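[User]
If only I could read backbone structure tokens as easily as an amino acid sequence. I have put the entry right below:
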Amino acid sequence: MTSATSRTRDDTEGLRALIAHARVVLWDFDGPICRLFAGHSAEGVASDLVEWLEGRGLRGLLTERERQSLDPHAVLRAVDRRQRGSDLVAELEERLTKEELKAAPLAMPTAYADPLIRTWTAVGSRLAITTNNSPRVVRAYLTSRGLLACFAPHVYGRTQDLHHLKPHPHCLNRALHALGAAPSAALMIGDTPSDLQAARKAGVPFLGYARNKAKEKLLRDAGATEVVGSLQTVLEAVRGQA
């Protein structure tokens, strides 16, 4: 396995080919653009959601494994599977959105993400966000970084239809339709196997971003063939084709 941090000439050519064919770039948010919960623990948010449910006598909605989850989206999905379309799910989703909004000002920008976004925009590519996070949170963060104009209005995030969260390709398909782009002319940048699965279902080429070896292994094991350990590599490739 070639490490994401030590790319060969063939690897670099593969990356350049991906970029050369991409007229539209679909970005996952939490990971490739920033670490949303860098200063506001995702594990703590998941625990708070579980405690909120238990405080309302709804402990039975979750299995023991789900109650121990470190991922707030996993808690939200679990409740949605059993109470789809309910007021409870809507309230739980809003609670998660509020926690994400608290996290946004403390989010850690991913290295080289800001200049890469601006460079890709400058060379004429169209960008969209395709995320499981709330679009309100994405807009708040992008506005704080002066990046919203690079994406607006194409921010496609979590809706009340939680079964459409990735790995469902719904948000990718919304972006492609709105941009009038064929899947083959797009590129998805994501950092999780669910991003890869959504891209495959939508027919969109995929570029994995892995900030560490564990993330890289998850992506490689899921079948990702192009993975970078730094967006600097992508920035250099985009600049090279400008």
In short: The first strand starts at residue 24 and ends at 27.
